[in-house]
Amino acid sequence: MIPVLFGLRLGRWGMIGFAAAAFLSILAQTAGFYQIAGHSPSARAAFGASMSALAAQFVALFPTPIRPDTVGGFVEFRGIHPLGILLCVWALVSATGFARGDEERGIVEASLATPTSRAALVASRAAAFTIAIAVASLAACAGYLAGLAIGHETAELRGVLEDGVLLVALGLACYALSIFVAQLVPGRAATAAAGGLLLGLFLLNSLSRVLQSLVAWRWLSPFRYYDLSQPLPPGGTFDARGFLILVAIAVVGTAAAALAFTRRDLGSSLIPFPARHRPVSFAPSANTLWRVPVVRGVYERRLGIVAWSAGMSLLAFMFVLLTRTIVNVLLSVPSLLPYLSVFVHQQIYPAVLGYTWLNVAQLLFAALAITHVARWSAEDVDGRLEMTLSQPFPRAAVVVERMAVLTVIALVVSAISGTVLFVQSHIQGIDLNAGRLAAASLMLVPFALVFAGAGAVLAAVNPRAAVGLLGAFAFASYLDIELATSFRLPLWLQDLSAFKLFGTPLLTGVDGRSLALMVLLAMLGLGSSILLMQKRDVGR
Amino acid sequence: MLPEMAAAAIRTSKLTKDYGAGRGVFDLDLQVSAQEVFGYLGPNGAGKTTTIRLLMGMIRPTGGSAYIFGLDCARDAVDVKRRVGYIPGDVPQFGSLTGSEVVTYLGGMRGGVDPRRVRSLCERFELDLGRRFREYSSGNKQKLAIVLAFMHQPDLLILDEPTSGLDPLNRQEFYTLLRETRDHGATVFLSSHILSEVEHICDRVGIIRDGRLVHIAELDEATAPNLEEIFLSYFSESRTKPKLLRS
User: Fold this and answer.
1) Helix or strand (DSSP H, E) at A154
2) Touching check for B128 and chain A: CB below 8 Å?
3) What is the rounded CA–CA span in Å between residue A92 and residue A115?
4) B59 interfaces chain A, CB cutoff of 8 Å
5) R_g over Cα of chain B
6) Distance from chain centroid for Cα B99
7) What is the spatial distance between Cα A414 and Cα A420, in angstroms, rounded to a whole number?
8) Which residues numbered 71-110 in B keep a CB inside 8 Å of some CB on A?
9) Ramachandran sector of residue A103 (left: φ over 0; alpha: ψ -120 to 50; beta: rest)
C-alpha cells in the first residue's frame, strides 16, 4: 500500500491538475450547450446539423457524433473525446516519467533498495495511476452532472459512469503500452518512442475512418475499442467487449513491462544498443557553434528541431491528403449545403485546410512553447541555470537568448511544414494563396511566443510549477475561444487568448491588430520575465 | 570600487539572508585577503551554501552587503564573475552533452578559454571529455566542475565542497592544484565538511553555526589550534542541547 501512496504522492499535481481540467472543461461544454443550442426542437435540429458539419471536418481526429443536437451527443463529441486524448498524453508522460525519469533521478534505485520486487514496483505505480485517472474521470462525470443541473436536465447515471470507466480503461491501456515501450529503449528515447507508438496507433484508427486501406489494421489500435462506445447520447452504446479489450491491453501491457523490467539492468534498455568506441579526449569541442549566442541553443536542440519539423510536415501532408475526402463528405450531405454555400464562394479547400490544419498547428505550437518552458524550468531545478549565471553573463541575456532560440526554432518548423503544405496542396490540385499561407505559417511564431512569454514569467516566479501553470493557461486560452460564443464573453477577454488572436489568416489574411496584440503580449511577457529574473533567487 | 576594499578579495558587512524560521545567514562580517585560502566550516544547514550563493549573486541579500575585489556582488554580478571560478554544491546536469561540449559552451560565455589549459587540467585529473555528461560517474562530474572552475585561471575561486565524490588520489591532485593556484596569486574560498582537508590546505578558517559566523582561526602550522576541538566545542553541545543553545 505504501508504494501506491508514494506513487500518488509523486504524481499528486498531475492528478489535481487533470481532475480540475476534466471537471472544468466538461462543465463548460455542458453548460455551454444550453447557451448555443437553443431550446426549441427546430433550433436544436439546426444546431445538430451545424455540429455534424463541424464533425465532418474533424472526422480524421474524432468519431462521428451520435445525436449532436442533444447535450449528451454534444458533450461526448466536444468534451469527452478531446479529454480522452488529453488523458492519454497524461498516461504517456506519467508512465515514461516513472519508467525512466524516476530511474535517472535515483528514485527507482532507492525504492528497489527496500524489500520491494521490480514487478511489485511496476504494479504499485500502475495502481497509483489507476487511482489518479479514476479521480480525473470522476471529476469529468461530476462536471457533466453539474452542467446538466445548470440546464435543469437529468441524465441516466449509467451512461455517465460508463463514459467514466471508458476513459479510465483507455488511459490505462496507454499507460501500459508506454511503460512497456520505455523498458525497451534507452531512457532519453523513452518518451519519444512511446509517444510515437501511441500517435501511430491513434492515427491508424482515426485515419481508418477516411482511408479504406487502413480498416483491416485498426483492430491493432486501442483507440478503436474506445471508439466503439458512445454512452452519453440518447441511443448511444457501450461496447462491453471493447471495454474488456482495453482492460486486457492494460493488464497484459503492465505485466509485460514488469517482466521486461526484471530482465534489464537499471539505467539500461532491454534491447541492447552497443556503445560507440571513442578515443579518450582531453580537448574542448572545436565546434564553434557552441560559442555563438542563440546558435548554440538552436544547435543543442537540433534533434528536436528535426523531429518537430518532420512530425509537423507529416501532419501537413496528411491534412492535405484528407482535405478532398473531408470536402466530399461535406458536400454529400444535402442539409449542409446551405452552410457550405458561404464557404464555397470563398474557396472551400482553403477554408477546410485552414480550419483543420491551422487549428492543429496552433495546438502543436502551444505544445512546442510549453516544452521549451519545461526545459527552462528543468535548467533552473537541475542547476544548469546556476552554472550559466556563474559565467559573466547577464541574467537578462539568459531570458532574451531563450526567447530568441524559441523564435528561430518556431520559424524553422513553421517554414518547413508550411512549405510541405504548399507543395502537397499544389500536387493535389488545391489552389492555395502562397502569400496567405506564408503569412499564416509565420503567424504561428508570435503565437508560440505569447505562450513562451507567459511561460518565461512563470518560470521566473516558480520554475517548479511553471509547466503546470502554463498548461492551465493554454487550456484556459483554448477554452476562452471555445466558449466565447457560448457564454458571450467580452471582446477584451477573448483578446487575451492567442487562439482567438490567431484568427483565420489562410482565409481572410492576417489581422494587423491581432498580430500587434500577440507581439505586445509576447514582449510584455519577455519584459516582465527579465525584470523578475533580475530580482529572483537562483539555486536549488 | 571602494578604495578601502581594494585589498580584500572578499568582504561582507552585516550580510544577511533571512529565509524565516531562523534559517539563512545573519549579520555576516567577513574579510578574505588576496592570495588567502579561506576555509568555511559548518554542519549541514548552517548557511555555508547560502553564503556562497550570496557571494556569487545567485540570491539577493535581505540586508548588508558583499563585495568581491571591491565590486558589489549583487549589482556588479557580471564583472565579478569575470574574475571568479565557481564550483556549486551540487554539480549541474548537462544531460546528453559531452564534457567537451560543456567546456566549449560555458567557455564561450566567457569569450573563450585556452584549450591548452583545459587539456592540461583534464590530463591531470584523467577526465575524458569525449563522453556524455549523463555517462559520467559522480566523481567524473565533480572533476568536470573543477575543470570549469579553473579553466580561465580566475583571481578568486569560490568552491562549495569541491572534493565531494573524488577518490583519494584525485583529492590529493586537487590539493596540489589549489596550492599552485594560490602561489600564482589567486584567492580561494572553500566550504567543506572535512576538517583534515581544511587543516591541510587553508590559511584561515571560519566556522558558521545557525547562520552566524561564530569563530575565525588562523591555521598557521606552528600555532595551529586543534580544529577538531574547536569544531566540536561548537557543535557537540548543540547535538545534545539544541534548545539551550538557540536560546
Assistant:
1) none
2) yes
3) 28
4) yes
5) 18
6) 22
7) 10
8) 77-79, 81-82, 84, 86, 88, 90-98, 100-101, 103-110
9) alpha
> Phi, psi (5° rounding) for residue B71?
-100, 140
A267 touching B (Cβ < 8 Å): no
HSE, side-chain direction, 13 A CA sphere, residue A5 = 2
Report CB contact under 8 Å: A104, B78. no
Among candidate residues B185, B111, B113, B95, the one with its CA nearest the CA of residue B149: B113
| Alpha-carbon gap, residue B96 to A71, rounded angstroms | 50
pLDDT in tens, A430-459: 888 899 999 999 999 999 999 999 999 999
CA dihedral sign of residues B97, B101, B103, B106: negative
Interchain CB contact of B20 with A (< 8 Å): no
b/e A471-498 (16+ beta carbons within 10 angstroms → b): bbbbbebbbbbbbbebbebeeeebbbbb
Count of residues in chain A? 540
Question: What single-letter amino acid sits at B72?
Answer: D
Cα–Cα distance between A70 and A33 in angstroms, integer?
9
Mutation pick from B68, B109, B132, B146 vs chain A, by most beta carbons of A within 10 Å, is B109
| CB B142 within 8 Å of CB A383 | no
In DSSP terms, B39 is beta-bridged to: B190, B205
Per the CB < 8 A criterion, the answer to whether B16 and B62 are in contact is: yes
Q: Which residue of A has its CA nearest to B87?
A: A387
For cell 470522476, what's the residue?
A138
What pLDDT, in 10s, does the model give residues B1-44? 444 444 689 999 999 999 988 899 999 999 999 999 999 998 88
- A283 to B100: CB separation less than 8 angstroms, yes or no: yes
Angle in degrees, 0-180, between the axes of helices A337-345 and A302-331, rounded to the nearest 10: 120
Nearest CA in chain A to B145: A387
Dihedral angle sign, alpha carbons of residues B117, B121, B123, B128: negative
What is the ipTM, given to two decimal places?
A: 0.88
B101 contacts A290? CB cut-off 8 A: yes
Contact A393 B93 (CB under 8 A): no
Cell numbers for B82, please give them.
569575470
Alpha-carbon distance B51 to nearest alpha carbon in chain A (angstroms): 12
d(CA A509, CA A81): 31
Question: Which residue's entry shows cell 499544389?
Answer: A426
C-alpha cell at A138: 470522476
Q: Is A382 on the interface with B (CB under 8 A)?
A: yes
The identity of residue B189, as a single letter, is F
How big is chain B, counted in residues? 247
Buried b (16+ CB within 10 A) or exposed e, A366-382: bbbbbebbbbbbbbbeb
pLDDT (0 to 100) of residue A312: 93
Render pLDDT for B134-189 as a digit per residue (tens, 0 to 9).
889 999 999 999 999 999 999 999 999 999 999 999 999 999 999 999 999 999 99
Number of Cβ within a 10 Å radius of residue B39? 25
**A258 φ/ψ angles, rounded to the nearest 5 degrees:** -65, -40
CA distance B231 to B198: 12
Helix (H) or strand (E) holding A212: none
Domains of chain B: 3-83+158-164+191-246 (3.40.50.300)
Chain B closest-CA separation from residue A200 CA (Å): 27
Contact flag B130-A281 (C-beta cutoff 8 Å): yes
Lowest-confidence segment of A143-147, A409-413, A474-478, B100-104 by average pLDDT: A474-478
Question: Do the beta carbons of residue A129 and residue A101 sit within 8 Å?
Answer: no
Given an 8 Å threshold on Cβ–Cβ distance, is A538 in contact with B58?
A: yes
* φ, ψ of residue B28 in degrees (nearest 5): -80, 115
Q: Do A393 and B123 touch (CB under 8 A)?
A: no
Q: Which residues pair with B65 in a beta bridge?
A: B13
Question: Does residue A507 carry a pLDDT above 50?
Answer: yes
CA B66 – CA B30 distance, rounded (Å): 9
